[in-house]
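User: tokens in, sequence out, please.
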């Protein structure tokens, strides 16, 4: 269990330094310490620790539970709470964030180390399950004949296949973790106005959702590409929506063929009027 990175979030500096010293004596790495919820979120994104030790009561606008929610949803980093407060309301709020542990202050080093080792072991087991599941989904996406982007429950990109990379202009490493709206931008061809991303409805309502004809994808290079699009929810074995998939394809060639046919039938140039 040596060399794992642990972020310490504690607003009492003496307590934070004591925890840091204990963790380093166990063989863990403490890349940084945070004293507010806002700092905790930023440091989690920057350092990508293996675990966060989070004090529930923090100074500032964001308490430990709110910070843990953001870190859990956006970074998939497990959190173990440190707190002297054990009232039922606080515990219920904390449970909503699916913590990997809960340590009541004051605690000794053995209790601290045991909880950390259990949390890291649980994380390793869950990562293996997620890896196997994600690998299967990603492999399926990479072998589909259309462009595909998948997201997590918060609408952030978890995978983008080669066809989707080619059309959007975003490489895999650029897209992962980004809000899907930033990678997959679509507008109405007629009005030029933004079109609601299909993942929003898929995530919100758990249903398939297709975009109407005349939808145009704006690539990273600002190319305008007419596309057919459908969004679909991803569900787990409990039928809970845990993400969404966008499937889309470039219909430029198809539209050119349709226009050529209309030109032949009704006269050159008139097909543009019919299509609009």
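Assistant: Sequence out:
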């Amino acid at each position: 269990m040596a060399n794992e990175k642990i972020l310490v979030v504690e607003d009492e500096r003496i307590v934070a330094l004591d925890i840091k010293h204990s963790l380093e004596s166990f063989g863990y790495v403490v890349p940084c310490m945070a004293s507010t919820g806002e700092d905790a979120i930023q440091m989690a994104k920057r350092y990508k620790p293996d675990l966060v030790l989070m004090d529930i009561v923090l100074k500032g606008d964001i308490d430990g539970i709110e910070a843990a929610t953001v870190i859990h949803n956006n970074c998939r980093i497990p959190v173990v709470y440190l707190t002297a407060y054990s009232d039922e309301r606080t515990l219920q709020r904390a449970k909503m964030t699916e913590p990997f542990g809960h340590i009541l202050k004051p605690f000794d080093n053995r209790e601290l180390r045991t909880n950390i080792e259990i949390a890291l072991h649980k994380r390793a087991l869950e990562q293996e399950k997620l890896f196997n599941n994600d690998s299967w989904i990603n492999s399926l996406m990479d072998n589909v004949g259309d462009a595909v982007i998948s997201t997590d429950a918060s609408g952030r990109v978890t995978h983008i296949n080669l066809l989707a990379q080619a059309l959007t202009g975003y490489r895999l490493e650029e897209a992962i973790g980004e809000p899907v709206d930033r990678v997959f931008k679509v507008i109405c061809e007629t009005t030029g106005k933004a079109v609601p991303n299909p993942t929003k409805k898929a995530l919100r309502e758990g249903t398939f959702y297709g975009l109407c004809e005349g939808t145009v994808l704006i690539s990273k290079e600002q190319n305008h590409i007419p596309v057919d699009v459908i969004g679909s929810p991803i569900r787990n074995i409990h039928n809970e929506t845990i993400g969404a998939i966008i499937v889309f394809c470039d219909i430029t060639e198809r539209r050119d063929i349709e226009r050529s046919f209309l030109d032949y039938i009704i006269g050159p140039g008139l097909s543009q009027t019919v299509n609009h």
